[in-house]
């Protein structure tokens, strides 16, 4: 090739990108580097956006960071936002592992919240029952509510081969309508669209409740749900990677034909995994209603946690442990976004970060070369 | 092609390979799996780019950056896995991706053109039929038609016979000869010595990315010589098979009737028996009910009537799980889609049938330490070549993958082993390994039902052979290696003549 007399411009023009699938897994540090790079790249684009709208990108970012991570107080708020996402993300992770596309974590979340609320609001258990009975009963009811809402699309899929994407999605709307009915007609608080507030002994304990002994915790709203979420992540990991059932889930997810050949019952597993997924989402709903909202009310519960859980699950590569940090990252984004502007720019930055992260996966699966044309053969 | 070099991570797939093709010849490219045959041809067809070396077409250097460039230079490739749109007709598939017709398609006119082209080369296909209605052999013809319609002078066929029934292979060879007679050239990728000797004018042999024989005339060489060039050592074509007296009946199939996926009868009143310590071969042209039989025995398919007795217990219409527990092992026909889970590790793949029992199962949990130990044992005993047992199965070559499956199926100490095409698509060295393992199982007292389309394999391994035709058993033969008329008899039965008629 003649490289001496070619002017720079035409040399640049003759450069082409060549993309090849990776044949071997890249080194361990590489995916992390790509992820960090994608976030930096997204923040850079977001910076341009802020500058165009007349702000100072650097100052805005510092403000965002302070607003979500800057002090114990706001970090606690970030964790509160992350808690429902952890459980919704876990719910999606276990279902997606078996290639069951459960889009209904939102509805299962709401039904979990309903189940927990029913324990408080129906006059079976007296209101002055101690917490140590109330909380386990609510956890159980939340899990049951979510599992039931997962069972329906699971059963339809297993028995009648109904597409679980459609059925679970539609069930989300039914779930919202269902709790609306109850808070309008049965448990209404003086005609408002919300139930009466729960008695204090039906609240998940918060850090601030310990402020009497440890003054530094005063005002921190992080509640027991975070511990429940982390425990759920550990349990989900053990189920997936250390139990016979989890092995079946992974085998069916990777190759259903091989699973059938190995004598697995796919029908039964479809129902069970959808129920497990629903139970995890239901636990999330229970934690949100008893840890944060403290009453059954539609708008703070049906806030899209179940849908965000889908994204969390994907970004965590369906790994239960990774769901926890990814959820905290998302919690920070949600909180910080509200801090600088109720809507608009922060939402866009969130979107850019998401798209960059998802697109960066490409760099993990493919290699990109820059080649000069004519030097290829 | 001169000095072609192509590297994949960790492998030098083509190491300064030279290859030349004359007009009007069938040139075979022979080599084991992973020798670099397909890589070399993918470079020629514009799918990969070589890192060094050059390609000359009619003396002119060319660079291909896409298959389209290659087709424009008259080079087309028919891949092992066909690239056709099932819901469209033959003609539509042939026209797909061409510049003409631009917008409106006068289909009948093109139907005629495609039909005529097919007639010229003996490629009988109805141009108006949709692809999904065609057999695999017919689909292959459509692929060839596609290339001919684009005016290719050089046709690369990647293992074209792997998917064909014997009579379809005959047809394919005729077509290739017709093309050569018109001055076109064919490159025939294969690892089957027999075929190469029968079809090709010249042969180039690759071993581990290097040429070991360049353009040798097939008339001037022998199968043994080619085999040596391919694997680098003499291959035993005769197995060391000890005589063994079969014992009690393990599998007894009585008057079995089952349907295929389309709900049509696939097995009609079929009966056979397999005893402990014998290999029973099932010969027949593909698609005569072999697959359905294997599936009903292993619990993957329901049967309508009849009995399947394993050691006297009825296992017909039971689940696959029951069959596994009763000691039925199954080497499936389709290694990648049925036999293994591609993204799971070797460990996860070898415990597929044993994860329900201790030591790998510990109550509800899996003992991953025991599972890893088990996988490492199998890796060593069955010579599975992988860096670690954590490697996902999709990174394994065909022969290695088959060893994983065999290791798993044999390690369960099966009473009955149903082996479907256990050597299909494997190279000579790997085939020999599989044969040895099957014989060792027989000597250890397992009952083996071997389904194969390779008659030679059946005759050299089996103690007895049944021949299946349209779901019926045509006859049963005790194999006698000194009786050379047996091949002929089996051939007649495979085409539908019952044994009584042949004998009378």
Provide an overview of this structure:
The complex is a heterodimer of chains A (377) and B (504). Chain A is mostly helical and 377 residues long. Chain A has one domain (56-340): Orthogonal Bundle (ABC transporter involved in vitamin B12 uptake, BtuC), CATH 1.10.3470. Chain A has 15 helices and two strands. In chain A, strands 1-2 form a two-stranded antiparallel sheet. In chain A, helix 8 (225-242) runs antiparallel to helix 14 (320-340). Chain A is globular, with a radius of gyration of 24 Å. Chain A starts with 7 loop residues before the first helix and ends in a 5-residue tail after the last strand. Chain B is of the alpha/beta class and 504 residues long. Chain B folds into two domains: 2-231, P-loop containing nucleotide triphosphate hydrolases (Rossmann fold, 3-Layer(aba) Sandwich); 249-503, Rossmann fold (3-Layer(aba) Sandwich), CATH 3.40.50. Chain B has helices spanning 37-44, 67-72, 90-95, 107-120, 136-149, 166-181, 193-199, 223-231, 290-297, 320-325, 335-339, 346-350, 368-381, 398-411, 428-443, 455-461, 486-494, 499-503, and strands spanning 2-8, 11-17, 26-30, 52-57, 60-62, 75-78, 154-158, 185-190, 202-207, 210-217, 249-259, 265-275, 279-283, 305-310, 313-314, 328-331, 361-362, 365-366, 416-420, 447-451, 464-469, 472-478. In chain B, the strands form five sheets. Chain B has a six-stranded mixed beta sheet, sandwiched between helices. A six-stranded mixed beta sheet of chain B has the order 16-19-20-13-21-22, with helices on both faces. In chain B, strand 1 and strand 2 (11-17) form a beta hairpin. The N and C termini of chain B lie far apart (58 Å). The mean pLDDT of chain B is 84. The chains are: A mainly alpha (377), B alpha/beta (504). The A-B interface holds A 18, 22-24, 238, 241-247, 250-251, 254-255, 257-265, 374, 376-377 and B 8-10, 49-50, 53-55, 62-65, 298-300, 319-324, 330, 332, 334, 337-344, 348, 351-353, 355-356, 361, 364-366, 368, 395.
């Amino acid at each position: 090739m003649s490289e001496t007399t070619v002017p720079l411009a035409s040399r640049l023009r003759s450069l082409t990108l060549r993309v090849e699938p990776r044949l071997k897994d890249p080194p361990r540090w590489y995916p992390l580097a790509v992820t960090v790079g994608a976030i930096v790249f997204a923040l850079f684009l977001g910076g341009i956006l802020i500058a165009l709208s007349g702000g100072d990108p650097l100052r805005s970012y510092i403000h965002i960071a302070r607003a979500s991570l800057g002090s114990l107080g706001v970090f606690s708020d970030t964790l509160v936002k992350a808690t429902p996402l952890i459980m919704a993300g876990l719910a999606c992770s276990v279902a997606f592992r078996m290639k069951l596309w459960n889009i209904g974590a939102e509805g299962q979340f709401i039904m979990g919240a309903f189940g927990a609320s029913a324990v408080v609001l129906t006059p079976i258990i007296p209101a002055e029952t101690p917490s140590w009975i109330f909380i386990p009963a609510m956890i159980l009811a939340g899990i049951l509510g979510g599992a039931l809402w997962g069972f329906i699309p699971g059963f339809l899929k297993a028995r009648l081969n109904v597409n679980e994407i459609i059925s679970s999605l539609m069930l989300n709307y039914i779930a919202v309508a269902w709790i609306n009915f109850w808070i309008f007609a049965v448990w209404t608080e003086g005609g408002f669209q919300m139930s009466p507030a729960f008695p204090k002994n039906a609240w998940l304990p918060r850090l601030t409740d310990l402020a009497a002994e440890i003054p530094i915790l005063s005002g921190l709203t992080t509640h027991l749900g975070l511990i429940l979420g982390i425990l759920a992540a550990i349990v989900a990991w053990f189920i997936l990677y250390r139990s016979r059932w989890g092995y079946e889930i992974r085998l069916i997810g990777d190759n259903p034909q091989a699973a059938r050949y190995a004598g697995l019952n796919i029908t039964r597993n479809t129902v069970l995994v959808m129920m497990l997924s629903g139970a995890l989402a239901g636990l999330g709903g229970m934690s949100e209603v008893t840890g944060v909202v403290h009453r059954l009310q539609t708008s703070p519960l049906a806030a899209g946690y179940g849908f965000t859980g889908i994204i969390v699950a994907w970004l965590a590569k369906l790994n239960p442990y990774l769901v926890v940090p990814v959820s905290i990252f998302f919690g920070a984004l949600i909180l910080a976004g509200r801090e600088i502007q109720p809507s608009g720019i922060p939402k866009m930055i969130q979107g850019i970060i998401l798209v960059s992260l998802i697109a960066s996966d490409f760099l993990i699966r493919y290699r990109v070369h820059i080649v000069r044309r004519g030097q290829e053969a | 092609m001169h000095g072609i070099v192509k590297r994949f991570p960790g492998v030098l797939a083509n190491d300064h390979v030279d290859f030349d093709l004359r007009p009007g010849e069938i040139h075979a490219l022979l080599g084991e799996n992973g020798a670099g045959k397909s890589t070399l041809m993918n470079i020629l067809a514009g799918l990969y780019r070589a890192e060094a070396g050059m390609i000359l077409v009619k003396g002119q250097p060319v660079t291909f950056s896409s298959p389209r460039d290659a087709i424009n230079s008259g080079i087309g490739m028919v891949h092992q896995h066909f690239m056709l749109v099932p819901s469209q007709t033959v003609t539509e598939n042939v026209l797909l991706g061409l510049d003409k017709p631009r917008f409106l398609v006068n289909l009948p006119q093109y139907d005629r053109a495609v039909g005529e082209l097919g007639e010229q080369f003996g490629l009988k296909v109805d141009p108006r039929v949709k692809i999904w209605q065609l057999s695999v052999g017919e689909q292959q013809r459509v692929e060839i038609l596609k290339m001919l319609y684009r005016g290719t002078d050089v046709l690369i066929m990647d293992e074209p016979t792997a998917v064909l029934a014997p009579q379809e292979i005959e047809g394919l060879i005729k077509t290739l000869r017709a093309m050569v007679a018109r001055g076109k050239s064919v490159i025939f990728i294969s690892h089957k010595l027999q075929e190469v000797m029968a079809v090709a004018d010249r042969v180039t042999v690759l071993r581990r990315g290097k040429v070991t024989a360049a353009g040798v005339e097939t008339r001037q060489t022998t199968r043994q010589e080619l085999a040596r060039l391919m694997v680098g050592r003499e291959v035993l074509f005769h197995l060391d098979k000890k005589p063994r007296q079969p014992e009690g009946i393990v599998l007894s199939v009585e008057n079995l009737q089952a349907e295929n996926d389309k709900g049509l009868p696939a097995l009609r009143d079929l009966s056979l028996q397999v005893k402990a310590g014998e290999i029973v071969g099932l010969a027949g042209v593909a698609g005569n009910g072999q697959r359905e039989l294997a599936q009903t025995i292993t619990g993957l398919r329901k049967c309508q009537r009849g009995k399947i007795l394993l050691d006297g217990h009825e296992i017909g219409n039971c689940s696959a799980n029951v069959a596994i527990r009763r000691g039925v092992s199954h080497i499936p026909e389709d290694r990648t889609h049925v036999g293994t889970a591609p993204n799971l590790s070797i460990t996860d793949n070898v415990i597929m049938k044993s994860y329900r029992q201790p030591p790998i199962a510990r109550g509800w949990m899996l003992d991953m330490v025991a599972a890893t130990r088990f996988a490492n044992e199998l890796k060593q005993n069955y010579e599975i070549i992988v860096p670690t047992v954590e490697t996902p199965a999709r990174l394994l070559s065909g022969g290695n993958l088959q060893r994983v499956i065999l290791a798993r199926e044999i390690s369960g100490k099966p009473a009955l082993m149903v082996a479907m095409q256990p050597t299909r698509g494997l190279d000579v060295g790997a085939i020999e390994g599989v044969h040895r393992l099957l014989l060792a199982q027989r000597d250890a007292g397992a009952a083996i039902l071997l389904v194969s389309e390779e008659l030679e394999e059946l005759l050299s391994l089996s103690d007895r052979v049944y021949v299946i035709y349209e779901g019926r058993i045509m006859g049963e033969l005790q194999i006698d290696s000194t009786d050379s008329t047996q091949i002929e008899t089996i051939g007649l039965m495979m085409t539908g003549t019952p044994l009584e008629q042949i004998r009378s």
